[in-house]
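Teaching assistant here, posting this on the class forum so everyone can see the example we discussed in section. The complex has two components, and the goal was to see what a joint structure prediction looks like when all of them are supplied at once.
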Amino acid sequence: MSADREHPIVERILPISVGEWTRSVTRWDAFAVLLILGILIFLGEASRSLLAPLSELQATPLSLAPAHLPEYAARTTLRMLVALAFSLLFTFSYATLAAKSKRAELVLVPLLDILQSVPILGFLSITIVFFMSLAPGRVLGAEFAAIFAIFTSQAWNMGFSFYQSLRTVPVELLEAASVFRLSPWMRFWRVEAPFGMPQLIWNMMMSMSGSWFFVVASEAISVGNTTVLLPGMGSYIAVAIAQKSLAAVAWAIGTMLVVILIYDLVLFRPLVAWADRFRFEHEAGIPPPRSWVLNVLRRSGIVALLARPGAMIWRQSFGWRSFRAAKAAPRSHERLRPRGDRLWTAFVLVVAAAALWQVSRFVMQELAPADIGEAFALGLATLLRIVILIAIASVVWVPVGVWVGTRPRATRLFQPVAQFLAAFPANLLFPLVVSAIVAYGLNPDIWLSPLMILGTQWYILFNVIAGAAAIPAELRDCCVNLQVRGWLWWRTTAFPAVFPYYVTGAITAAGGSWNASIVAEVASWGNQRLEAYGLGAYIAIATQKGDFHRIVLGIAVMSLFVVLINRALWRPLYQHAERKYRLG
Amino acid sequence: MDATTNVAPLLQVKSVRQAFPKPDGSQLLVLDDLNLDLAEGEIVGLLGRSGSGKSTLLRLIAGLARPSGGNITYLGRPVVAPAPGVAMVFQSFALFPWMTVLENVQLGLEALGLPEAEIRRRALSAIDLIGLDGYESAYPRELSGGMRQRVGFARALVVHPNILLMDEPFSALDVLTAETLRTDFLDLWSEGRLPIKGVILVTHNIEEAVLMCDRILVFSTSPGHIVDQIKVDLPQPRNRLDPSFRDLVERIYVVMTARPAASARASPALEKTRAIGMDAVLPRVSANLLSGFIEAVAGAPYNGRADLPVIASSLHMEVDDLFPVAESLQLLRLVDIEGGDIQLTDAGKQFAEAGIDDRKKLFQKLLLAHVPLATHIRRVLQDRSSHVAPRSRFLDELEDHMDEEAAEQTLRAVIGWGRFAEAFAYDDQSERFSLENPT
């Protein structure tokens, strides 16, 4: 057979499985060994003293000296990475079950949808008691509790994205997998997981920055009357706020900048570059992401040598008999089993109704209908804040985004900056704002609000940039040719073109703001406390008091708001935008 | 293939039918009473238009789904799941973009749990056979369409299947690449270098079927069934310009355009192409394309009468492009189709000579006279005092007769024609039909 000539093969690195691992040690090996040793030392250092008793921790109070910051940062990061590992485990099992079983899907997906939009922050106090009892009197128990809290802020959106990826694996790939008789195990690791990988990694990055909100709350743990401060960035900030030390806050912000740069460099950038090959469709003209860390690891012979036995066992597991039960294809008329499905639906509805009844009974034990009315009023106040904030952010960022997006040079410069801003934990900036509100005696109902959108507004910005950059060049040329300029251009071209992207960004920003309200509507500086009138403050205060009835009520009302707004506003708007304004 | 009589067939399909449950509880029949044998050394072609169920049949044979009735046996055993020894080549290649060429080819062997050395040896030899040497470490996206499909072939051949199933494997490729790949495949096949015993090829390309197959089963639509079986006795390699080759192509065109009444086992649904009612699915063909085709038939060298295969190849139209156009024109009485020829009617000639305004008037007259759905919409709009009707009204009526997708397509088609004819207007935002265009 003759070979096509128009596509000379590009020189590329062979994957580990075919690489020549017998060649002599190279400079890449030196780099790789340094990298791996560094990571090992970091892990050892950060996990030291896990088994120490709690009293020892309380004997050495947290120090605000900047010299301790590297250690605190390392510990906090490790907690987040461990939580991330659990989130991955959760994602692979929960999302896979939801995607594979129709009946599981009926329960798991709505549950995930709710978990995703509900702040679990309020339930922290319950889980802490449980985890502390797992390792009584030891630091480990408190660590578990903190890691679980961080996990709850990471897992849901990862699970949801992976579920959606699994649902959209192209049919022909699944058919090919069946025809070549891949076992379910092999199909998962060779077809489904790779297909979902790029999206999953993107969501891991989102989760990582999102979970910074929870770090502050999770590292300072109160059990009864004693408060445990786990060494970490969250505790450091809590102490800095209590001691009104602006200098310490500044040090913490500086450290965070460095930490984010480092984990971006050694973790996410390599992951993104690695996952690029799992991308199903490649847009032309966009250079693939690169990472020198990944290149070092790929070129190193030692890494290949170490990875080889693992890769071999991995591949052989695909052929193991126990994994290879051939399943009969369904008959077409077997796909609908209305009776069994109806029974299952009825069962689920009964259980849900029972749970609802339990919850309302629990809440109503202590609370009067007036409390529910109050919670709704507070919810409306928070809703009003979010609407106004999203409107302001839109007025500011849509024009900026369009301006940047229609200029390729500006886009190239600005896009990484916007991504960094989104990854930066906005609540580290809270103390700066709060101290200013205290100093100038401003109205907290108004001036605490901007904190809610501090971290989430960037989603609007970089979605709009992406939308503006996607306006076809011919369409822009056509506008120039017809002399469409000024307001007419914005009205007929720019706004419609970025609208679907804007909606996506606004949905994310609004969802994040609800969550942030719990942290943003109550703030303190030293012994001064600021409270805004809103549902977030209601939940936060109830949490501090350990008032479970109000926590449950507050969260239920907030979930109701979020779900109703999603269904009634965002979803239809999104569908309309997709239908009418999607270009190409 | 004279040895077929004493050897059990590789594959037997016996009175297979396939139906899908519709939301309203009734059944949608897509395949009806299909029979097919595949003997050793044979290439059998399944030829038909899209929607004739030929790909559905291929998937049943592959064990990807099971038929509602009848049975399929492979080497005497019923097929209930993907069987070992049956491999498939896909229209869209279905390569895994995250695996290199080598990894893609090795996939089926890894699933078999073979030792690593064996996997490597067989994969490399398949790559060598199919002409992919040097591309082992390339990723599919770095390859052209032709090379990608070669990977698809290597991946299928490497498991040494008894039967190779091909689902329109050349239709996503450009003309030249497709031809090279076909000849390469046929060369390897006739030299006996392929580790396969029989091939089933799904295609909608008549010439491709005649070029490659020993036997062609012609499918017809709604529900899919075999209307004719044609044996191709021409020796390989075959020459497209050979008169006997052309004769066969012509013969298949005649079979495929035959009025259903003439065919032996016309189904009730097919008879309605003549006396079309509200329950007919309309093809989505733009009025522009219809005009263009009429002009082509009216012009030289055809002067009003054309041989379908000839005009199809000169206009570079595949069966799936050509037949909807021809049928729409027939429906509107702008042409007659007889014995593989297409001829303009008087209305057709008039249409060809008219200017744009007269064309629209004529089109409106024919549309309202011969397309009951258009007549119906127009009448409803006239009867209502507001002269406005929602789209859902007609969609619901159509869905009494056909599935959702077909109803959607039919309504889209009639909207397109109605707009060209200025018979009625439609606003996609409000999803409403009206009598008046905005002024």
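For the discussion questions: The first strand of chain B starts at residue 11 and ends at 21. Chain B touches chain A through 64 residues (CB under 8 Å). Think about how each of these relates to the inputs above.
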